[in-house]
Amino acid sequence: MPTADAVLVLTGTFDPTADLVIEELNRRGTPVFRADTAWFPSRLAVVAGLDGASGWAGTLATERRTLDLSTVRSVYYRRPTAPEFPAEMSAEARSVASAEARRGFGGLLSALSCRWLPPPGRAADAEYKPFQLRVAAESGLRVPRTLITNSPSAAREFAEGIGGPVVYKPFTSIRGTVGGRSVAVYANVLEEGGTDHPSISTTANLFQEWVPKAHEVRLTAVDGQLFAAEIHANSSAAEVDWRSDYDNLTYQVCDPPAAVTSAVRRMLGRLGLPYGAFDFVVSPSGKWTFLEVNPNGQYGFIEQATGLPITTAICDYLEGIDGV
Questions:
Q1: What's the pLDDT tens digit per position in 178-219?
Q2: pLDDT at 1 over 50
Q3: What is the reported pLDDT for 2?
Q4: What is the mean pLDDT of the chain?
Q5: Which CATH class is domain 145-209?
Q6: Domain boundaries along the sequence of the chain
Q7: b/e code 54-72 from CB counts within 10 Å (16+ = b)
Q8: What is the per-residue DSSP string for 73-127?
Q9: Largest alpha-carbon pair distance within the chain?
Q10: Element (H, E) at 301
Q11: Is this structure's pTM higher than 0.85?
């Protein structure tokens, strides 16, 4: 059965954040076609052609549903996983097939003439922390003093120059399994002598000055609308990185300073993003310091705790209803 005038949702099989958006779109009566790029090529077939300047026309099809590509009004690009290929394929063939799928199937999706949340190329660029820190500073946001290095001596000099606590942060979300147990790497305050650790020389490391905090803020921006919530840590682990201890957090809706809201909108414009999940530290004196922005960050836990209508704003954008 063809799906017309639909929102294409690209995400993995288990994604509670995408579920919120799909449920709201269903409530509005907006057709939704959900797919994971992992379904390609065994469970998802693509047929598309280009004839002149009218754009790509064709279909995406599963065993049960068909999407007319020419009728896609928007794409919600959440967390799709990589295409899966037959186990019997050789490593060489799998490598070629993966590259062809990325450039061919992925390239076709990116060529759809519709709005994306977020645009995948722009989102990929924005995920580079060195880039987003530079853009944040240029946009008028306060950023911590930061060092990127693989030199233990440079890290030591940086820490000595700070003259106070220094935080190590991973560049990416690091999660995995060690010895049958799930583990994750979060931001942590370096102990004395931490800059002498031999692992520093093995890769790039990000060090920042510790910013004293009264609390933190998650500010979710959707098409110019800003939704801000204070995050109060009630454990020592959450005080350093609240992601490490969700059970000991409390939330409160807040209003960002005008200078921060202007800078956030300016930064999103420079990054070319309609959506961003911003993290700030608010000092005891009330100063806001930018930590990072996730161009596709989760927001459901904030909406659930505060009632902020973030899902509504996302669905408005996907349906073409402009924000502020």
A1: 566 655 666 788 877 778 888 899 999 999 999 999 999 999
A2: no
A3: 46
A4: 91
A5: alpha beta
A6: 2-117, 124-130+133-141+212-318, 145-209
A7: eeeeeebbeeeeebbbbbb
A8: -EEEE------B--TTS-HHHHHHHHHHHHHHHHHHHHT-SSEEES-HHHHHHHT
A9: 66
A10: helix 300-306
A11: yes
